[in-house]
Amino acid sequence: MKQGYIHSSVGLVLLALxxxxxxxxGSEVLPTVGIxxxxxxxxxSGGTTSLxxxxxxxxxVDDSFPNATVDYTIQDGTATSVGNNPxxxxxxxxxxxxxxxxxxGATTKTITVxxxxxxxxxxxxxxxxxxSNPLGLVIxxxxxxxxxxxxxxxxxxTGIALCANATQSGQACPQQSFPGQDAERGRDAQAVGNFGLxxxxxxxxxxxxxxxxxxxxxxxxxxxxxxxxxxxxVQDHVTGLFWEVKQTSGGGTLRDAAWTYSWYDTIxxxxxxxxxxxxxxxxxxxxxxxxxxxxxxxxxxxSLCGFSDWRLPTREELRSIVDYEVASGALIDNNxxxxxxxxxxxxxxWSSSQDQTTPANAWxxxxxxxxxxxxxxxxxxxxxxxxxxxxx
Length: 392
Fold this sequence. Notes:
The chain is mainly beta. It has 3 helices and 20 strands.
């Protein structure tokens, strides 16, 4: 059977000519064209990246119609191509175009949009590309989604949901003489002001946590106390991080809240500022080294909450769980992070962040005052560890 095409008032018509005689002929199958979804990490301000969609031909273009075509349309979703700060730039031909698949030519074509980087935290954003008006082709997958993945670190708010005046803190917002305070912005303000802040879990003000058991499953009763139903980890839905929960002080377990550790890292080479720190300098469970490297290995060996990629948090990651509005005790949401240790000075939880001006020091976060402190890696008095996973 031979086939050909003619144009009519209703579009392109396929003519099938069946051979005369006893041969009978057969049916011709048009090739299929489809588009695949794509994603790209956004990048930083001033830079651009390319989001590339592949349009693929499955089959062979027939010699009776050697230049088959398909149109496409690019449409904004949550990502936009207009305005003062567009998320992406359309191709030179705009938001519509036509692709041609020729006899003996390439079977994959591409549609490329240019993604503009920025340094703003925002949800991942999307756009769509849709195929239409095939000539000499049949459309398989007609629509693809392009995802622009945000790469800025997710940050918790400060926990401060009340304002201050000249003499007192803990006052209702706003304070007319002192406008624009921290409590009037961000997730905390959304939570307190009933502005529709949606949480996956719960937590004070803008924090959003879920309690996990030793296997990484959510506790059935998220409001139960640690004394009734101890949990082992907390998932932070804002930052995407998973946090170790310390066990009761004096219990003599691996993750006892009272154990102390020296800072020690022989694994990351130059990342330790050329000073590995002090091995086995703290006071902890017998049979293991009382330093950060040994503790990380021990916890990963137990696959805490089903994970074996626990690490020291950065200073900023530790700061992200500080609740600066707590009136007394540890500056943290104790409904999710019980057994948090505090001391007034020269104390805190070790971070992986090091003092770039003093190679023998690393940074701690003090949950008594919510401040960071540069401490000698050999420090062991009131030098605790809370591990984290995810991020980076």
